[in-house]
Amino acid sequence: MAEKNVVLRFEDVSVSHYENKIFEHLDLTVRAGDFIYIVGPVGSGKSTLLKSVYAETPIEKQGAANVLGFDLLKLKRSSLPRLRRQLGIVFQDFRLLENKTAIENLDFVLRATGVKNKQIRKERITGVLQEVGMELKGYKYPHELSGGEQQRIAIARALLSEPKLILADEPTGNLDVETGLGITRILQKIASKGKTAVLMATHNERIIRELPAAELYIGANKPELSVASASQEREDGVSIETNNI
């Protein structure tokens, strides 16, 4: 039986990128409400780890890897869309459609995922814009928004599917530090509500220092993933479990 609130469980997981071993023998349990930084130097494999979660980078056929009830070691290509629709993914470069307003960007995603009811789409878009503090700028085009505002829209887009797990790949990489802190606070607030876990890759030490959370560290000269914060207890008593062999 699946443990309550667990959205990701890796047991003795190893991942390689071509001939380079990114990490090995990783045990990681993530529950709804957890916020974890994936940290390490540029090029150390942070993005590769996140890609392994949404099955773009394959996991070596050992151990166990379960994400939102999907067994990644047995996942068929035909099941990939179902897995990814249940994840929220935030990229460094926003990836908004330049010829559409913020609202139209969000509506495009809902239409593409089969939400036909116009009123339901409108209510969902209003809700996610409010969640990221962009309810007054939904009618602006991406070029009319600052980088931080575009990233807020990208986070809103990730929230449309009401995901239990958000993967944020260097979401502050193109932003100044203060704006990046604001984006990180939004992601931490989402996690704090207890329904969604967030894994955020970053190499920004100031953000990590000012907004501390559990960390998984990928060393520049090590093939394995080491753990910077082995356990973080939250007020509700739920803990993040991480172990490295």
UniProtKB/TrEMBL annotation:
Entry annotated with the keyword Transferase: no
One matching Pfam family: ABC_tran
Single annotated GO MF: transmembrane transporter activity
UniProt KW Nucleotide-binding keyword: yes
SUPFAM superfamilies linked to this entry: P-loop containing nucleoside triphosphate hydrolases (SSF52540)
Domain spans labelled ABC transporter: 8-245
PROSITE patterns according to UniProt: ABC_TRANSPORTER_1, ABC_TRANSPORTER_2
GO biological process, alphabetically ordered: cell division
UniProt-listed Gene3D superfamilies: P-loop containing nucleotide triphosphate hydrolases
Coiled coil: none
Keyword annotations: ATP-binding, Cell cycle, Cell division, Nucleotide-binding
GO cellular component term of the entry, any: plasma membrane
Protein name (database record): Cell division ATP-binding protein FtsE
